[in-house]
Design goal:
Layout: H1 2-32, H2 40-58, H3 67-86, H4 96-107, H5 109-127, H6 133-152, H7 161-188, H8 194-237
């Protein structure tokens, strides 16, 4: 019992630390990015990747992550980027968010945030880098982080397609999409007021609906088979686990 209690305390500490970074440090960095100079979004993006790595590595308290764990997450990032690029001809249809959420469910919130942030940065070498890149990294990372929290708590499971798909679609529609709309508000509007904010958020609603639909369909059709494969890899190699003696 003491071992399980200690593990729960450790997980709680990691979660509080991760939440503080994501809810305080990342938004502060996005807010200060205007002071970074001409290529400020590159510096901001690099800082977000650093924060993501910090969160991921903090989950390994008494050991270093294994090479196979890094490689597996790199593969999931590549799959996420490829899924976004595959639908480049369909505006705003981004299965990538669903892949990021699957990674979070399978490997935990820290891995989900890292996958989301890196995938957002790398995919924009195809779609175009700009001041929106750090915001996309933040939004996609939050999607993976939330899915990871609920996956670790047992609320989301890879074999529960309906619940997971609905969660993904609603999260994009109610949270991830508005975060991206907020980016448009700060980067495209010269004067922020009630009218300009309403115009941005209303114009972003159709975009968010398409994005939410893509996420719902991705999770509905792919969450179960991909999660099963990732869980087999985890069990076989003992991946993404803290030391038993912790």
């Amino acid at each position: 019992m003491s071992g399980k209690t200690e593990q729960k305390r450790t997980e709680k500490k990691h979660l509080i630390f991760a939440a503080a970074v994501i809810l305080l440090l990342v938004p502060a960095t996005l807010g200060l990015s205007r002071q970074f100079g001409n290529r400020r979004y590159y510096l901001c993006s690099v800082l977000l990747i650093f924060y993501s790595m910090l969160l991921f590595l903090s989950g390994f308290e008494k050991r270093k992550p294994q090479a196979r764990e890094i490689v597996t997450l790199a593969v999931m990032c590549a799959v996420a980027v490829a899924s976004r690029a595959a639908f480049i001809m369909i505006p705003h249809f981004k299965p990538m968010t669903g892949i990021i959420m699957i990674t979070g469910i399978a490997f935990g919130p820290e891995a989900g945030f890292l996958t989301g942030a890196v995938s957002g940065f790398v995919s924009n070498f195809i779609f175009g880098q700009g001041p929106w890149t750090p915001w996309q990294m933040f939004a996609f990372g939050v999607a993976g982080f939330l899915a990871g929290i609920l996956g670790r708590a047992g609320v989301l499971r890879g074999n529960d397609r309906i619940r997971t798909s609905l969660f993904g679609g609603l999260t994009v529609l109610l949270l991830i999409g508005p975060i991206l709309d907020t980016c448009s508000l700060f980067t495209m509007v010269t004067e922020i007021n009630r009218a300009s904010a309403a115009a941005i958020y209303l114009s972003g609603l159709p975009v968010n609906v398409v994005h939410a639909l893509a996420t719902f369909l991705t999770l509905f059709f792919l969450c179960r088979p991909i999660t099963e494969k990732l869980n087999r890899i985890k069990i076989k190699y003992g991946m993404m686990e803290e030391d038993k003696g912790a």
